[in-house]
Amino acid sequence: MTTVAGLREALAEARTARGSTARVALVPTMGALHAGHLALVDRAAEVADIVVVSIFVNPLQFSDPADLDRYPRDLDGDLAAIAAGGGHVDYVFAPDVTELYPHGDVATRVTAGRVGGLFEGRSRPGHFDGVLTVVAKLINAVGPDVILFGQKDAQQVFLVGRMIDELNMPVTLDVIETVRDGDELALSSRNRFLDARERRAAVTLPHVLEAAESAADRGIDAVLAAAQAAAMGEQLVDLDYLAIVHPDTFLPVDDDYTGRARVIIAARVGDNRLIDNAAIYLGA
Q1: Which of 73, 150, 213, 233 to pair with 168, CA 20 to 30 A apart?
Q2: CA 228, CA 67: separation in Å to the nearest integer?
Q3: 134 with 128: CB under 8 angstroms?
Q4: Are the beta carbons of 50 and 25 closer than 8 angstroms?
Q5: Are 255 and 221 in contact, with CB atoms under 8 Å apart?
Q6: How many CA atoms lie within 13 A of 202 on its CB side?
Q7: Which residue in 37, 88, 127, 207 is the catalytic one?
Q8: 133-148 tens-digit pLDDT
């Protein structure tokens, strides 16, 4: 499907055919699909009767035009991956830019607030305003009962959940754990740009998270020291940020905090910017 009107019509017919209680799941993606996306599709099929995958490279979330141009696009490959994934997808919504942004510049946007300007938002100004705006538009277009995201993009997950809650959107957020490759690197569409040496260096990110988790019972200072030590020594890894945030606010925790927390990390490996995160419990 390439138009909002066409998708809505098809979903209305599907709901009529499958009964008034049929649930719709939406898996929003920017394409370049990998096993992490397909895990979301599998989960969607477990929680809903009708599965919609959207494929749209959203220009609003790119502050760098070169990064937007570089983002991988392979609709035929994505459709083949979906077809090979077990037949769980009922509709693929793949609009062009003018379908979602018919007036070009978007005057009406969702703003991500204070948290949207931290961490990823500090490095990519306006990124989360663009993410929330397109997710809101997709929710309006599809009318899903559940929307699914992966935990790898932890700040995005937090902000989407807060938007749904604060704007009283009638949709449930379902989050699956980060899907990792055999070397524990989190799956990402950007991993395809890593050469062999960069790929070996990128595994530093999950190693940092493992070091942080192993030190969690000794408090925040020990976690940061262990994580920073694990990040040192790999010349190809240029650390952007390493932080410990509260899962309910996504703000940095206090120095004496104990309890649930999340370690978040971003680094540039060669020309590629990668992110990762892990849940920890600070204190004994």
Answers
A1: 150
A2: 28
A3: no
A4: yes
A5: yes
A6: 28
A7: 37
A8: 999 999 999 999 999 9
